[in-house]
Amino acid sequence: xxxxxxxxxxxxxxxxxxxxxxxxxxxxxxxxxxxxxxxxxxxxxxxxxxxxxxxxxxxxxxxxxxxxxxxxxxxxxxxxxxxxxxxxxxxxxxxxxxxxxxxxxxxxxxxxxxxxxxxxxxxxxxxxxxxxxxxxxxxxxxxxxxxxxxxxxxxxxxxxxxxxxxxxxxxxxxxxxxxxxxxxxxxxxxxxxxxxxxxxxxxxxxxxxxxxxxxxxxxxxxxxxxxxxxxxxxxxxxxxxxxxxxxxxxxxxxxxxxxxxxxxxxxxxxxxxxxxxxxxxxxxxxxxxxxxxxxxxxxxxxxxxxxxxxxxxxxxxxxxxxxxxxxxxxxxxxxxxxxxxxxxxxxxxxxxxxxxxxxxxxxxxxxxxxxxxxxxxxxxxxxx
Length: 384
Ligand code: GAF
Description:
The protein is α+β, with helices and mostly antiparallel strands.
Protein backbone atom coordinates (compact mmCIF):
# COMPACT_ATOMS: atom_id res chain seq x y z
CA UNK A 1 0.00 0.00 0.00
CA UNK A 2 1.20 3.54 -0.83
CA UNK A 3 4.64 2.53 -2.04
CA UNK A 4 6.09 5.69 -3.61
CA UNK A 5 9.20 3.77 -4.65
CA UNK A 6 7.26 1.59 -7.08
CA UNK A 7 5.41 4.51 -8.66
CA UNK A 8 8.63 6.51 -8.89
CA UNK A 9 10.49 3.76 -10.69
CA UNK A 10 7.60 3.10 -13.08
CA UNK A 11 7.42 6.82 -13.86
CA UNK A 12 11.17 6.93 -14.40
CA UNK A 13 11.03 3.96 -16.78
CA UNK A 14 8.05 5.35 -18.73
CA UNK A 15 9.06 9.01 -18.99
CA UNK A 16 12.85 8.93 -18.40
CA UNK A 17 12.48 11.68 -15.80
CA UNK A 18 12.88 11.74 -12.04
CA UNK A 19 9.48 12.63 -10.51
CA UNK A 20 8.27 14.25 -7.29
CA UNK A 21 5.70 11.99 -5.62
CA UNK A 22 2.58 13.06 -3.69
CA UNK A 23 -0.20 11.28 -1.82
CA UNK A 24 -3.82 12.19 -0.99
CA UNK A 25 -6.17 9.95 1.03
CA UNK A 26 -9.77 8.86 0.55
CA UNK A 27 -12.21 9.37 3.43
CA UNK A 28 -15.12 8.08 5.45
CA UNK A 29 -17.58 10.42 7.03
CA UNK A 30 -18.41 9.53 10.63
CA UNK A 31 -21.51 11.75 10.68
CA UNK A 32 -22.96 14.77 8.85
CA UNK A 33 -24.41 13.59 5.55
CA UNK A 34 -25.70 15.91 2.80
CA UNK A 35 -25.07 18.87 5.08
CA UNK A 36 -21.95 20.23 3.34
CA UNK A 37 -23.71 21.90 0.43
CA UNK A 38 -26.23 23.30 2.94
CA UNK A 39 -23.26 25.09 4.59
CA UNK A 40 -23.63 22.87 7.67
CA UNK A 41 -21.34 20.51 9.60
CA UNK A 42 -19.58 17.27 8.66
CA UNK A 43 -17.16 15.05 10.57
CA UNK A 44 -15.04 12.96 8.19
CA UNK A 45 -11.73 11.15 8.69
CA UNK A 46 -9.02 10.52 6.11
CA UNK A 47 -8.37 6.79 5.66
CA UNK A 48 -5.50 4.48 4.80
CA UNK A 49 -6.54 4.15 1.15
CA UNK A 50 -5.04 6.84 -1.04
CA UNK A 51 -4.01 8.03 -4.49
CA UNK A 52 -0.37 8.68 -5.40
CA UNK A 53 0.83 10.98 -8.17
CA UNK A 54 4.34 11.20 -9.64
CA UNK A 55 5.07 14.30 -11.70
CA UNK A 56 7.95 15.59 -13.81
CA UNK A 57 8.15 18.57 -16.17
CA UNK A 58 8.24 18.19 -19.99
CA UNK A 59 9.67 20.56 -22.56
CA UNK A 60 7.33 19.70 -25.48
CA UNK A 61 4.26 21.49 -24.04
CA UNK A 62 2.35 18.22 -23.67
CA UNK A 63 0.49 16.97 -20.63
CA UNK A 64 0.80 13.19 -20.55
CA UNK A 65 -1.20 11.42 -17.86
CA UNK A 66 -0.79 7.71 -17.24
CA UNK A 67 -3.09 5.72 -14.97
CA UNK A 68 -1.40 2.65 -13.50
CA UNK A 69 -4.84 1.37 -12.45
CA UNK A 70 -6.39 1.60 -15.92
CA UNK A 71 -3.06 1.05 -17.74
CA UNK A 72 -4.01 3.87 -20.03
CA UNK A 73 -2.37 7.09 -21.21
CA UNK A 74 -4.06 10.37 -22.15
CA UNK A 75 -2.30 13.25 -23.89
CA UNK A 76 -3.29 16.93 -23.82
CA UNK A 77 -1.70 20.20 -24.94
CA UNK A 78 -0.84 22.53 -22.04
CA UNK A 79 -1.59 25.52 -24.28
CA UNK A 80 -5.01 24.17 -25.35
CA UNK A 81 -6.64 22.59 -22.33
CA UNK A 82 -10.04 20.94 -22.91
CA UNK A 83 -13.13 23.04 -22.34
CA UNK A 84 -15.45 20.11 -21.57
CA UNK A 85 -15.15 16.76 -19.80
CA UNK A 86 -15.01 13.52 -21.78
CA UNK A 87 -16.63 11.21 -19.18
CA UNK A 88 -13.28 9.52 -18.63
CA UNK A 89 -11.03 9.10 -15.57
CA UNK A 90 -8.72 11.78 -17.00
CA UNK A 91 -11.45 14.42 -16.45
CA UNK A 92 -10.37 14.65 -12.80
CA UNK A 93 -6.65 15.35 -13.25
CA UNK A 94 -7.03 17.48 -16.38
CA UNK A 95 -9.93 19.29 -14.69
CA UNK A 96 -7.51 20.36 -11.98
CA UNK A 97 -5.22 21.87 -14.63
CA UNK A 98 -8.23 23.64 -16.17
CA UNK A 99 -9.32 25.19 -12.85
CA UNK A 100 -5.76 26.20 -11.94
CA UNK A 101 -5.34 27.81 -15.37
CA UNK A 102 -8.57 29.72 -14.72
CA UNK A 103 -6.95 31.02 -11.53
CA UNK A 104 -4.21 32.53 -13.66
CA UNK A 105 -1.65 29.79 -13.14
CA UNK A 106 0.56 29.13 -16.15
CA UNK A 107 0.24 25.37 -16.64
CA UNK A 108 3.44 23.86 -18.06
CA UNK A 109 3.80 20.58 -19.92
CA UNK A 110 4.23 17.63 -17.56
CA UNK A 111 4.15 13.86 -17.24
CA UNK A 112 1.91 12.54 -14.49
CA UNK A 113 1.67 8.92 -13.31
CA UNK A 114 -1.22 8.02 -11.07
CA UNK A 115 -1.87 5.00 -8.90
CA UNK A 116 -4.46 4.53 -6.18
CA UNK A 117 -6.08 1.95 -3.94
CA UNK A 118 -9.21 3.89 -2.90
CA UNK A 119 -11.93 1.48 -4.09
CA UNK A 120 -13.74 3.14 -7.02
CA UNK A 121 -17.48 3.82 -6.84
CA UNK A 122 -17.61 2.86 -3.15
CA UNK A 123 -18.34 6.28 -1.70
CA UNK A 124 -14.81 6.60 -0.27
CA UNK A 125 -13.92 9.65 -2.37
CA UNK A 126 -11.49 8.24 -4.88
CA UNK A 127 -12.18 11.22 -7.15
CA UNK A 128 -11.48 13.79 -4.42
CA UNK A 129 -8.19 12.02 -3.64
CA UNK A 130 -7.25 12.13 -7.33
CA UNK A 131 -8.08 15.83 -7.60
CA UNK A 132 -6.22 16.82 -4.45
CA UNK A 133 -3.09 14.81 -5.27
CA UNK A 134 -3.07 16.25 -8.79
CA UNK A 135 -3.46 19.74 -7.35
CA UNK A 136 -0.42 19.24 -5.13
CA UNK A 137 1.57 17.76 -7.99
CA UNK A 138 0.82 20.50 -10.54
CA UNK A 139 1.33 23.36 -8.09
CA UNK A 140 4.74 21.90 -7.17
CA UNK A 141 5.72 22.69 -10.78
CA UNK A 142 4.07 26.11 -11.07
CA UNK A 143 5.43 27.18 -7.69
CA UNK A 144 2.09 28.80 -6.78
CA UNK A 145 0.96 26.60 -3.90
CA UNK A 146 -2.19 26.94 -1.76
CA UNK A 147 -3.09 26.31 1.87
CA UNK A 148 -5.07 23.04 2.28
CA UNK A 149 -8.52 24.67 2.58
CA UNK A 150 -7.97 26.73 -0.59
CA UNK A 151 -6.73 23.70 -2.51
CA UNK A 152 -9.84 21.83 -1.36
CA UNK A 153 -12.13 24.58 -2.66
CA UNK A 154 -10.34 24.57 -6.04
CA UNK A 155 -10.73 20.79 -6.25
CA UNK A 156 -14.43 21.06 -5.40
CA UNK A 157 -14.70 23.47 -8.33
CA UNK A 158 -13.19 20.79 -10.57
CA UNK A 159 -16.23 18.64 -9.73
CA UNK A 160 -18.78 21.45 -9.92
CA UNK A 161 -17.49 23.38 -12.92
CA UNK A 162 -15.61 20.82 -15.04
CA UNK A 163 -16.73 17.27 -14.25
CA UNK A 164 -20.33 18.36 -13.69
CA UNK A 165 -20.99 16.79 -10.26
CA UNK A 166 -22.85 19.08 -7.88
CA UNK A 167 -21.05 17.97 -4.69
CA UNK A 168 -20.11 19.93 -1.59
CA UNK A 169 -16.67 20.59 -0.06
CA UNK A 170 -16.38 17.69 2.42
CA UNK A 171 -14.43 15.11 0.43
CA UNK A 172 -11.79 17.42 -1.01
CA UNK A 173 -11.43 19.17 2.35
CA UNK A 174 -10.67 16.08 4.39
CA UNK A 175 -8.35 14.68 1.71
CA UNK A 176 -6.32 17.89 1.79
CA UNK A 177 -6.49 18.57 5.54
CA UNK A 178 -6.93 15.25 7.39
CA UNK A 179 -5.02 14.64 10.62
CA UNK A 180 -3.62 11.35 11.86
CA UNK A 181 -5.83 9.77 14.58
CA UNK A 182 -8.44 12.52 14.37
CA UNK A 183 -11.78 13.21 12.80
CA UNK A 184 -12.35 16.75 11.65
CA UNK A 185 -15.49 18.67 12.55
CA UNK A 186 -15.77 21.02 9.59
CA UNK A 187 -18.00 24.06 9.42
CA UNK A 188 -18.76 24.07 5.70
CA UNK A 189 -19.77 27.74 5.84
CA UNK A 190 -16.44 29.31 6.74
CA UNK A 191 -14.23 26.19 6.50
CA UNK A 192 -13.11 26.51 10.11
CA UNK A 193 -12.53 23.15 11.74
CA UNK A 194 -11.89 21.41 15.00
CA UNK A 195 -9.98 18.16 15.47
CA UNK A 196 -11.83 15.43 17.33
CA UNK A 197 -9.63 12.64 18.71
CA UNK A 198 -10.38 9.04 17.73
CA UNK A 199 -9.44 6.94 20.79
CA UNK A 200 -6.44 4.66 20.17
CA UNK A 201 -8.45 1.54 21.01
CA UNK A 202 -11.12 2.28 18.39
CA UNK A 203 -10.84 0.94 14.84
CA UNK A 204 -12.69 2.35 11.85
CA UNK A 205 -14.20 -0.64 10.08
CA UNK A 206 -15.41 0.13 6.57
CA UNK A 207 -17.85 -2.38 5.11
CA UNK A 208 -18.50 -2.17 1.39
CA UNK A 209 -22.02 -3.22 0.37
CA UNK A 210 -20.61 -3.64 -3.15
CA UNK A 211 -23.59 -1.63 -4.41
CA UNK A 212 -22.04 0.99 -6.69
CA UNK A 213 -22.34 4.59 -5.62
CA UNK A 214 -22.16 7.63 -7.89
CA UNK A 215 -22.76 11.32 -7.21
CA UNK A 216 -23.03 12.23 -10.87
CA UNK A 217 -26.16 10.09 -11.26
CA UNK A 218 -29.76 11.11 -10.57
CA UNK A 219 -30.34 10.48 -6.86
CA UNK A 220 -27.74 12.77 -5.31
CA UNK A 221 -28.80 15.89 -7.25
CA UNK A 222 -32.48 15.00 -6.74
CA UNK A 223 -32.08 14.86 -2.96
CA UNK A 224 -30.13 18.09 -3.06
CA UNK A 225 -32.90 19.81 -5.04
CA UNK A 226 -35.60 18.44 -2.73
CA UNK A 227 -33.88 19.73 0.41
CA UNK A 228 -33.13 23.09 -1.22
CA UNK A 229 -36.80 23.49 -2.20
CA UNK A 230 -37.75 23.25 1.48
CA UNK A 231 -35.11 25.83 2.33
CA UNK A 232 -36.49 28.24 -0.29
CA UNK A 233 -39.94 28.05 1.31
CA UNK A 234 -38.59 28.87 4.77
CA UNK A 235 -36.51 31.68 3.31
CA UNK A 236 -39.53 33.14 1.52
CA UNK A 237 -41.22 33.57 4.91
CA UNK A 238 -38.61 34.81 7.27
CA UNK A 239 -35.56 35.60 5.13
CA UNK A 240 -32.01 35.01 6.31
CA UNK A 241 -32.18 31.32 5.40
CA UNK A 242 -30.13 31.00 2.23
CA UNK A 243 -29.10 27.50 3.32
CA UNK A 244 -30.64 24.82 5.54
CA UNK A 245 -27.79 25.52 7.97
CA UNK A 246 -29.80 28.60 8.93
CA UNK A 247 -33.14 26.79 9.40
CA UNK A 248 -34.56 25.30 12.60
CA UNK A 249 -37.04 22.57 13.46
CA UNK A 250 -39.48 25.33 14.46
CA UNK A 251 -39.28 26.68 10.90
CA UNK A 252 -40.22 23.23 9.62
CA UNK A 253 -43.14 23.05 12.00
CA UNK A 254 -44.40 26.46 10.89
CA UNK A 255 -44.09 26.13 7.13
CA UNK A 256 -43.69 22.40 6.57
CA UNK A 257 -47.29 22.12 5.37
CA UNK A 258 -46.37 24.22 2.32
CA UNK A 259 -43.62 21.79 1.32
CA UNK A 260 -43.79 18.68 -0.82
CA UNK A 261 -43.78 15.80 1.72
CA UNK A 262 -40.42 14.57 0.41
CA UNK A 263 -38.87 18.03 0.65
CA UNK A 264 -40.06 18.30 4.22
CA UNK A 265 -38.38 15.01 5.15
CA UNK A 266 -35.12 15.84 3.33
CA UNK A 267 -34.94 19.15 5.19
CA UNK A 268 -35.75 17.47 8.50
CA UNK A 269 -32.78 15.16 7.96
CA UNK A 270 -30.40 18.01 7.13
CA UNK A 271 -31.47 20.19 10.05
CA UNK A 272 -31.30 17.38 12.62
CA UNK A 273 -28.06 16.03 11.12
CA UNK A 274 -26.28 19.32 11.77
CA UNK A 275 -27.31 19.12 15.43
CA UNK A 276 -26.16 15.50 15.69
CA UNK A 277 -22.82 16.23 14.04
CA UNK A 278 -21.92 19.02 16.42
CA UNK A 279 -23.07 16.85 19.36
CA UNK A 280 -20.96 13.92 18.11
CA UNK A 281 -17.80 16.03 18.13
CA UNK A 282 -18.51 17.08 21.73
CA UNK A 283 -19.09 13.45 22.71
CA UNK A 284 -15.83 12.35 21.06
CA UNK A 285 -13.97 15.11 22.84
CA UNK A 286 -15.38 13.90 26.18
CA UNK A 287 -14.64 10.28 25.27
CA UNK A 288 -18.37 9.48 25.55
CA UNK A 289 -18.46 6.65 23.02
CA UNK A 290 -21.96 5.49 23.98
CA UNK A 291 -23.27 8.90 22.93
CA UNK A 292 -21.28 8.79 19.68
CA UNK A 293 -22.85 5.41 18.91
CA UNK A 294 -26.34 6.63 19.74
CA UNK A 295 -25.91 9.64 17.44
CA UNK A 296 -24.60 7.45 14.61
CA UNK A 297 -27.65 5.18 14.94
CA UNK A 298 -29.99 8.15 14.88
CA UNK A 299 -28.11 9.59 11.90
CA UNK A 300 -28.48 6.35 9.95
CA UNK A 301 -32.21 6.15 10.64
CA UNK A 302 -32.63 9.77 9.56
CA UNK A 303 -30.50 9.25 6.42
CA UNK A 304 -32.45 6.15 5.47
CA UNK A 305 -36.02 7.06 6.44
CA UNK A 306 -36.18 10.85 6.11
CA UNK A 307 -33.55 11.57 3.49
CA UNK A 308 -34.18 8.39 1.48
CA UNK A 309 -30.43 8.10 0.98
CA UNK A 310 -29.86 4.44 1.81
CA UNK A 311 -30.57 1.12 0.08
CA UNK A 312 -31.68 -2.29 1.42
CA UNK A 313 -28.13 -3.63 1.42
CA UNK A 314 -26.77 -0.73 3.48
CA UNK A 315 -29.69 -0.86 5.92
CA UNK A 316 -29.05 -4.58 6.38
CA UNK A 317 -25.29 -4.06 6.82
CA UNK A 318 -25.96 -1.53 9.60
CA UNK A 319 -28.57 -3.77 11.21
CA UNK A 320 -26.30 -6.84 11.13
CA UNK A 321 -23.60 -4.94 13.03
CA UNK A 322 -25.80 -3.99 15.96
CA UNK A 323 -25.31 -7.00 18.25
CA UNK A 324 -21.67 -7.68 17.37
CA UNK A 325 -19.20 -7.40 20.27
CA UNK A 326 -17.20 -4.19 20.33
CA UNK A 327 -19.54 -2.05 18.18
CA UNK A 328 -19.65 1.62 19.15
CA UNK A 329 -21.72 2.88 16.20
CA UNK A 330 -22.61 2.03 12.59
CA UNK A 331 -24.12 3.96 9.71
CA UNK A 332 -24.08 4.37 5.95
CA UNK A 333 -21.33 6.84 5.01
CA UNK A 334 -20.96 9.19 2.04
CA UNK A 335 -23.23 10.26 -0.78
CA UNK A 336 -25.63 7.34 -0.35
CA UNK A 337 -27.64 4.80 -2.38
CA UNK A 338 -24.88 2.22 -1.95
CA UNK A 339 -21.21 2.34 -1.07
CA UNK A 340 -19.94 1.63 2.43
CA UNK A 341 -21.02 1.60 6.04
CA UNK A 342 -18.68 3.01 8.66
CA UNK A 343 -18.41 1.16 11.96
CA UNK A 344 -16.53 2.34 15.02
CA UNK A 345 -15.41 -0.84 16.78
CA UNK A 346 -13.19 -1.65 19.77
CA UNK A 347 -9.88 -2.54 18.17
CA UNK A 348 -9.60 -5.87 20.03
CA UNK A 349 -12.94 -6.94 18.48
CA UNK A 350 -12.37 -5.51 15.00
CA UNK A 351 -11.13 -8.67 13.26
CA UNK A 352 -13.91 -10.91 14.55
CA UNK A 353 -16.41 -8.11 13.89
CA UNK A 354 -15.31 -7.90 10.24
CA UNK A 355 -15.45 -11.68 9.75
CA UNK A 356 -18.91 -12.12 11.26
CA UNK A 357 -20.32 -9.12 9.44
CA UNK A 358 -18.98 -10.45 6.13
CA UNK A 359 -20.46 -13.89 6.67
CA UNK A 360 -23.84 -12.48 7.74
CA UNK A 361 -23.93 -10.26 4.67
CA UNK A 362 -22.96 -13.12 2.36
CA UNK A 363 -25.64 -15.35 3.90
CA UNK A 364 -28.31 -12.74 3.14
CA UNK A 365 -27.23 -11.34 -0.23
CA UNK A 366 -24.84 -13.93 -1.68
CA UNK A 367 -22.28 -11.14 -2.07
CA UNK A 368 -18.82 -11.08 -0.47
CA UNK A 369 -18.44 -7.57 0.96
CA UNK A 370 -14.98 -6.03 1.17
CA UNK A 371 -14.35 -5.08 4.79
CA UNK A 372 -11.38 -2.92 5.75
CA UNK A 373 -10.02 -2.20 9.21
CA UNK A 374 -8.64 1.34 8.99
CA UNK A 375 -7.35 4.13 11.18
CA UNK A 376 -7.65 7.91 10.79
CA UNK A 377 -4.73 8.91 8.57
CA UNK A 378 -3.11 12.22 7.68
CA UNK A 379 -4.02 14.53 4.78
CA UNK A 380 -2.34 15.04 1.42
CA UNK A 381 1.41 15.70 1.29
CA UNK A 382 4.62 15.20 -0.64
CA UNK A 383 6.28 11.80 -0.22
CA UNK A 384 9.55 12.23 -2.10
C1 GAF B 1 -20.63 13.03 -1.53
C2 GAF B 1 -20.33 14.48 -1.89
F1 GAF B 1 -19.24 14.55 -2.70
C3 GAF B 1 -20.09 15.32 -0.64
O1 GAF B 1 -19.90 16.66 -0.98
C4 GAF B 1 -21.25 15.17 0.36
O2 GAF B 1 -22.36 15.90 -0.07
C5 GAF B 1 -21.59 13.69 0.57
O3 GAF B 1 -21.76 13.00 -0.65
C6 GAF B 1 -22.84 13.53 1.38
O4 GAF B 1 -22.62 13.94 2.69
O5 GAF B 1 -19.53 12.43 -0.94
